[in-house]
Amino acid sequence: MVGSITLATRPPTEAQLRWFIPDPACRGIGLGRQLIDAALEFCREKCFQRVFLYTIIELLPAGHLYQSAGLGLAGRLHREWGRPAEEVCYERGLVKLDT
Q1: Digits of tens for pLDDT over the chain (99 positions)?
Q2: In sequence order, what are the beta bridge partners of 99?
Q3: What is the pTM of this model?
Q4: Rg of the Cα atoms in the chain
Q5: How far apart are CA 12 and CA 30, in angstroms?
Q6: Using alpha carbons only, what angle is made at residue 38 by residues 72 and 51, rounded to the nearest 5 degrees?
Q7: Which of 1, 14, 70, 94 is 20 to 30 A from 48 (CA-CA)?
Q8: Dihedrals φ, ψ of 61, to 5°?
Q9: Please, are residues 92 and 71 in contact by the beta-carbon 8 Å criterion?
Q10: Which residue intervals of 46-94 are DSSP H helices?
């Protein structure tokens, strides 16, 4: 296995991307983008209307990837994770693609 991404349903019309973890040895070769694209396609097929995820602002390459996949910065939270951390939310509305 070289990476994973999971989805959680948060009301029935929304999906939360979680545990998006490509293997560090495979980063930079497009695997992350493939995982994000596959997850978004799955969400369209299942008729989710919105997809969102939370991450920490320090993960700049991940933020760039989310934005390039059409997820926009939706909000910021300040939390303590053993130290002060700024958590951000990215989101995207979805439209089912005709086949």
Answers
A1: 899 999 998 888 999 999 898 888 888 899 999 999 999 999 999 999 999 999 988 888 889 999 999 999 999 888 776 778 889 999 999 976 555
A2: none
A3: 0.84
A4: 14
A5: 30
A6: 35
A7: 1
A8: -60, -35
A9: yes
A10: 60-68
